[in-house]
C-alpha cells in the first residue's frame, strides 16, 4: 500500500507540474509581449508618435489570431542581426537571444545561422537577390531604337498628318483653277500619288517638284514645311538626348553581365544576408562578384544609400528583390533586373524553443490562405510612378499639339481658299459667257 501511495503521489505531482507548465505557456501568450523591430520603409515607418507599415499591420493581425498584447520597441543598434567571430549576435536577433525582446518582426531573412540561434516562423513573404539599376544602364539597344524619340501615339498622329496633308494638296490642286491653267500634258501632274511623293519629299527637307502655283496649295505647303521643321528638330533633339555620352550603353540583364564588366560599380548592404550569400557561394560568377565588392569596398551602410547611389548612376545596388521592388515603385528612373537568385523568406523570430513559434506560424499561414498578406503587399507597395509616366523622354502627342494645330489651321485655310478660287473662277466664267451671249446675233 505504501508503494501504491507513492505512485499516486508521484502521479499527482506530474499532473500538477504539467498543469502549471501549461498555464505558464498560456500566460506567456496572453501577457504583453516585447516586440523589437527596425525602421525600414514600408515595413515599419514613423507617423507622428506611432509606428505603421506592413510589419505593423501583420503584427496586429497575428496578435488577434494568437491572442496576445504587445508593445513595440525599435532595435537599439539599428541592425537586423549578425553573428561576430565570438558567436555573439547583435541587432534584433541579439535582443531576442538575450531575452531583451520576445519577438522580432521585420524583413528578417530566414537563414541557417539565424535558425540555430532563434526560432523562426513560416515565411510571411518570399524574396530573392536581384540588381537595382538606372533604366539607361539596364536597357540595351534594339532594332527599332530610332522610333524611341516619339511615342506610338505620336507616330500615329504624324502618319495621319502626312496622309491628311497629301489629300489636302490633291484636293486643292483639283479645285483651284490655277493648277488647271497649264498645258494639256501637265493637267494631271498633281495626282494623289504625286501628292504623297511631294509631301514625303518635304518631310525630309528634299524638294519634289513641281510645286503648287495656286495660293491655296502654297498655304498648305507652307504649313506642312513649318510642321516638318519643328518635327525634325524635336526628333533629333530627343534622339541625341537618349543616345548622349552621359547615358551608358552598357546592358546589364543579370549577375553574369555585372561580373563581366568594369564600367559601373556595384555593391550590397554591409553585413547583410545578401553579402553572406555571395561570400558562401561556390558559383564562380557569384564568387567574382563577392571578391570585387571586397576588393573595392563598395558596400553601403543602408538601403537608402544604395538606392541613392543607383539613382545617381554608374552604380548597381544588389539587394533583396522585395526591397528593390519598393525602390522601383517609388523612384521611376530605376528598374530591377529580371534575374532573381537565392530565393528565401522573411520570418518572425522568437526565442529558441518558444511555444509561440507554432501558433505564430499557423497564424501566418491562415493570413496567407485568406489573401491578407497579398492585400498588405499591394497596400504598402503601391507605385507612385503612375502619374509620372508622361515624364518619359519620348515626345508625347500632347506636348506636340501646337504644331499639329498650326498644320490643321493651314490645311483648313488652304481648302477654304481653294473653294473660293473655284467659286471666283466660276463667276468670272459665267459673266464672260453671258457677255458673249449678249453680242451673239439672233
Task: Determine the N-to-C terminus distance.
Answer: 161 Å
Strand content: 5-15%
In helices, the fraction of residues equals 40-55%
What overall geometry do the principal axes of the alpha carbons give? elongated
Unreliable stretches (pLDDT < 50, length at least 5) are: 12-30, 244-249, 387-392, 433-442
Largest sheet: 9 strands, mixed
Order of helices and strands: HEEEHEHEHEEHHHHHEHHHEHEEHHH
Would you count the extended β strands for me? 11
Mean pLDDT: 80
The number of helical runs is 16
> Which structural class fits the helix and strand makeup?
alpha/beta
Which value, in Å, is the CA radius of gyration?
37 Å
What does this structure look like?
With 442 residues, the protein is α/β, with parallel strands linked by helices. Helix 2 packs across helix 14, helix 6 packs parallel to helix 16 and helix 8 packs antiparallel against helix 16. 52% of the residues lie in helices and 14% in strands. The strands form two sheets. Strands 1, 4, 5, 6, 7, 8, 9, 10 and 11 form a nine-stranded mixed beta sheet that branches. The protein has a two-stranded antiparallel sheet with strand order 2-3. It is elongated, with a radius of gyration of 37 Å. The longest helix is centred in the C-terminal third of the chain and has 39 residues. Among the domains are: 124 residues, D-Maltodextrin-Binding Protein, domain 2, CATH 3.40.190; 143 residues, no CATH class. The chain contains 16 helices and eleven strands.
Question: Outline of this structure?
Answer:
Helices cover about 50% and strands about 15% of the residues.
Amino acid at each position: 500500500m505504501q508503494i501504491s501511495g507513492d505512485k499516486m503521489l508521484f502521479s499527482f505531482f506530474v499532473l500538477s507540474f504539467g498543469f502549471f507548465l501549461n498555464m505558464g505557456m498560456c500566460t506567456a501568450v496572453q501577457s504583453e509581449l516585447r516586440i523589437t523591430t527596425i525602421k525600414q520603409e514600408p515595413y515599419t515607418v514613423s507617423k507622428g508618435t506611432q509606428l505603421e507599415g506592413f510589419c505593423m499591420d501583420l503584427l496586429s493581425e497575428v496578435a488577434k489570431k494568437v491572442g496576445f498584447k504587445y508593445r513595440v520597441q525599435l532595435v537599439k543598434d539599428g541592425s537586423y542581426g549578425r553573428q561576430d567571430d565570438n558567436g555573439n549576435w547583435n541587432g534584433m536577433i541579439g535582443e531576442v537571444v538575450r531575452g531583451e525582446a520576445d519577438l522580432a518582426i521585420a524583413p528578417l531573412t530566414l537563414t541557417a545561422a539565424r535558425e540555430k540561434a532563434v526560432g523562426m516562423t513560416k515565411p510571411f513573404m518570399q524574396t530573392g537577390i536581384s540588381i537595382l539599376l538606372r533604366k539607361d544602364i539596364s536597357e540595351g539597344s534594339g532594332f527599332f531604337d530610332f522610333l524611341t524619340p516619339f511615342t506610338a501615339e505620336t507616330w500615329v498622329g504624324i502618319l495621319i498628318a502626312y496622309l491628311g496633308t497629301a489629300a489636302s494638296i490633291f484636293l486643292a490642286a483639283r479645285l483651284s483653277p490655277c493648277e488647271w491653267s497649264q498645258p494639256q500634258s501637265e493637267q494631271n501632274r498633281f495626282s494623289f500619288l504625286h501628292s504623297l511623293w511631294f509631301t514625303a519629299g518635304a518631310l525630309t527637307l528634299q524638294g519634289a517638284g513641281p510645286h503648287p502655283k495656286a495660293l491655296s496649295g502654297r498655304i498648305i505647303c507652307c504649313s506642312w514645311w513649318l510642321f516638318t521643321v519643328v518635327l525634325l528638330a524635336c526628333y533629333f533633339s530627343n534622339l541625341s538626348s537618349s543616345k548622349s555620352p552621359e547615358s551608358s550603353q552598357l546592358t546589364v540583364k543579370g549577375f553574369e553581365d555585372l561580373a563581366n564588366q568594369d564600367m559601373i560599380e556595384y555593391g550590397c548592404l554591409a553585413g547583410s544576408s545578401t553579402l553572406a550569400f555571395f561570400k558562401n557561394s561556390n558559383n564562380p560568377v557569384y564568387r567574382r562578384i563577392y571578391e570585387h565588392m571586397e576588393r573595392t569596398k563598395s558596400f553601403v551602410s543602408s538601403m537608402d544609400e544604395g538606392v541613392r547611389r543607383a539613382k545617381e548612376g554608374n552604380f548597381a545596388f544588389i539587394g533583396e528583390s522585395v526591397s528593390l521592388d519598393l525602390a522601383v515603385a517609388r523612384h521611376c528612373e530605376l528598374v530591377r533586373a529580371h534575374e532573381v537568385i537565392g530565393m528565401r523568406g522573411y520570418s518572425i523570430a522568437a526565442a529558441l524553443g518558444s511555444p509561440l513559434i507554432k501558433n505564430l506560424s499557423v497564424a501566418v499561414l491562415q493570413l496567407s490562405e485568406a489573401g491578407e498578406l497579398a492585400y498588405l503587399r499591394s497596400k504598402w507597395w503601391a507605385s507612385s510612378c503612375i502619374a509620372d509616366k508622361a515624364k518619359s523622354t519620348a515626345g508625347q502627342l500632347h506636348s506636340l499639339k501646337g504644331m499639329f494645330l498650326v498644320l490643321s489651321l493651314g490645311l483648313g485655310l488652304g481648302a477654304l481658299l481653294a473653294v473660293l478660287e473655284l467659286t471666283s473662277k466660276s463667276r468670272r466664267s459665267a459673266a464672260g459667257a453671258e457677255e458673249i451671249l449678249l453680242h451673239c446675233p439672233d
